[in-house]
Amino acid sequence: MAKEMKGTGSNPLDMANFLSGEVNKSLKDGSFLDKVSPITQDLLKYWFDESFSDLRDFNFHKGQKQAILNIIYLHEVLGIENVLGLYLNTNPEILQRMDVDDLSKEKYQHPMYAVKMATGTGKTWVLNAILIWQYLNARFESLNIEYGGEKSGKFSKNFLIVAPGLIVYNRLLDAFIGKEDEQGNRDFETSDFYKFKELFIPNYYTDVILTFIQNSVVKKEEISSKVTGDGLIAITNWHLLAGVEEEVVIDNPLEYPTEVLSNALPISPGTSGGNSLESLDNNFLKGNELEYLAQLTDLVVFNDEAHHIHEVKKGEEIFEVEWQRSLNFISKDKKNRFIQIDFSATPFSNTSGKNKIKHYFPHIIVDFDLKAAVVNGLVKMIAIDKRKEIDSIDLDFKAIRDGRKVIGLSEGQRLMLRAGLKKLQILDSEFTKLDKNKHPKMLIMCEDTQVAPFVSEFLYNEGLSDDDVMEIHSNRKGEVTEKQWNEIKQRLFNIDNYEKPKVIVSVLMLREGFDVNNISVIVPLRSSDATILLEQTIGRGLRLMWREPEYVETKAEDRKKVLIDKKEPSNYLDLLSIIEHPKYMDFYNKFLEEGIVIDVTDTPKSGNTLGDMITVGLRENYRNFDFYWPIINREREEILSKEELSLDNLEPFDIPLSSLQKIKGEGGEKFESHDIIVRTRFGEYNVTADLFSSESYNEFISKIINSITSQIQSFKQGQKSFPVMQINNAEIAGLIDNYIRYKLFNTNFNPLENENWRILLMSANSITNHIIKEISKKIYQLQTNVNVREAEVKKIFFSQVDTLRMRKNYSLEISKSIYNRLPYPSNKGGLEKLFIENVDLDGRVDSFVKINEYYHTFATITYIREDGLLARYFPDFIIKVSNDIYIVETKSDHMMSSFNVQSKRIATLDFIEKINQLKGENRMDSKWHYVLLGETTFRGMLNKNASIKEILDYSVLTESKVKGNLDDYL
């Protein structure tokens, strides 16, 4: 059972970094995608290809992307079966520096991957992506088997997700089945999978994935009893695997020697009283849940906060924690059909002694550390508040005790608390000036539960009320009971949304899972020697508070100023302040040397915490300058006419069908010829020739529609929904089918005869893209073909957005807009700045506004991108001069002729043509125009003293001009 622990050191990190380089190289040269399934190809393209990611408001960041790629590469491309294989198949030389015998342990004899990612960088999104990848591949493998295919054994539809405690457990339930209301009901639409389905799930798999999740999630008390459909997602905390009710954490070992001894020794010595190893194992593993999980033929286990699972060293012996023993039992007969994926920001154990060497888990496959997270702006920057008074006064920073009993706080602790309070008060007063809904919080980590009441009392004496302070611990327990948890969780997890409490006083309970965003100050009164504890404490405050897009630019400038130029920050947005504790100076100094944190020795002055960020509201007489944006909807859903569904305007593919049939290939095999590869987006199509049925052909058509329209979704304005797509999908499906059968190749074509389906799937980037482009044009034409006399018009006023946040240094005070100031870009924003200045000064201009795509989400126009997909376009400005309204796009000269700029121009002219057919009361009693204004034209005419109206009228473009129909001008 026991052996000398040699440790791994940092060797696993070396392997992970080497692996990342190999994976990225393989992805770039295309060999990665060539070696994975069509399902995986689908997912990787959807997640990471710019043609999709550029259209989304949120995407995987580089750390998440690397983790997903590395796991898929190891598992699907290299076929790793155990931890030793990680090294043998990547960089075996590293094994010379490691204990190879240690990797022969039972627990390392299956596919096992550890993801090291800094707290707050979204480990759960990686978990979600891997689950989707596993499930879809397993599902379509099952379908393939029905047609004579083989099961690879690499994929599973069964998942076990293990949390370190009740807090993370409930967070995971929120992520999978939605947040819980006060009555205990969960709303699936608040789950991560539903809220972020645009990111996680390609449209053509949405129903499959969402149905699986809704029908397959099993809570910890339901494991082995709840019947699920196509697979299992079991979510539990580690206590179920350990066979205990809840974890006990000892704050004062001398006070509770029995519990300490019990924790140190998994069993009592001797075999009397039923304490033989065999009887104890049988007793421990007899639970229905473990037996049920052990009997599954395959299983993927996700361990969240997996640093809990490492071996524990007592003296010269090492012991497996009960959690790991249970996993060993569950995996025993599964071999490589048991896949373990561990997530942790701190996947290491420390050696005892002065040097405290970190030994990292041997199966780490990606290292996205705190420095990378800070540099990329994914977590807050960290400041160590080193008070000058602390440096000059020799103080005690431990609680005052009478024997073992705490009787008060030391002067050092009081000083730290006052420093934290002062910082919090400054941030609170400044932050609410910028955004009244942003409430910074302070987290105080106490040395034990006896100290916590004294901390709360001190805070009350400093002027805080009962509502300002939340004391949360559970009398020596690192995890609260279910009953206690139900009482506090509503208040605790919504803490970001409320002004109070301002301060959270805790001991160990909030180490993990306390995933709130507004922790801005941390006071670590606890003086443990455990580095991992301090890292976890800091982790509670790393999550970004100021996530909105308008803050991205100023925060990036501050990161450069702090991390590269080594200067003080200009603002305190997303800057975590840690009040210095002298016990942790070595830890702080290490981070300072690495450039992760900064030194702050002076208290920020009021007014200097926001930098140049300001909130701008509506001016007092804003109604005199307001605009509305007309949304034209069909009054009713109409059946499209034969003329509307005509194929006449659709272009055929440029390679004759006869030529394509020659290279189609025979039988059920894939082919490679003349650089044209038979590649399908759908897993079952390329297994056997019989598999392309009428059902799957319909699915192919559905996926074409979804690919085209996926980014043109309904948007919300208040409580009303304004649908962008109003065309019946069934009619579009019929159009696509007719196009493929009768026009695509300029001859009759039956995809279900003679394996003709292969032709549709060969060189997908050519034929499929051609179909998408042609159908996109048709949908666009149908969408804009609205009889305005029968249409319903909805007016959305710009003043409904009553506040904007912007940078004062990159905005102008103006007089002719609903807002007191308007912003312009800090990077190459000179043209927009000049335009705003001159429009505001022109006496003939009545009003104008700069359209902000993050706020004015309704002011959008649908256009066709160069790749054939439909997308949304937000013009720069809207201007009113007398009875004329101008939609204006300012562009540098070199951008004027780009395809997308011209496509936006044509789409806007189509939009304006419809607007001008409306009754006067539906278009502000004005004629609408579109202006694509080049920089040279604008500056040149300004120099000739032209008015804004003269410049705009000179540049007005009609549809005839753009499309080259000059007859209207003769």
UniProtKB/TrEMBL annotation:
Describe the location of the Helicase C-terminal domain by residue ranges.
426-579
Cellular compartments per GO CC: cytosol
Q: List, alphabetically, the SUPFAM superfamilies matched.
A: P-loop containing nucleoside triphosphate hydrolases
A Pfam match is Helicase_C
Q: Which GO terms describe its molecular function?
A: ATP binding; DNA binding; hydrolase activity
Tell me the superkingdom of the source: Archaea
Q: What protein name is recorded for this chain?
A: Type I restriction enzyme EcoKI subunit R
User: Organism, per UniProt?
Assistant: Methanobrevibacter cuticularis
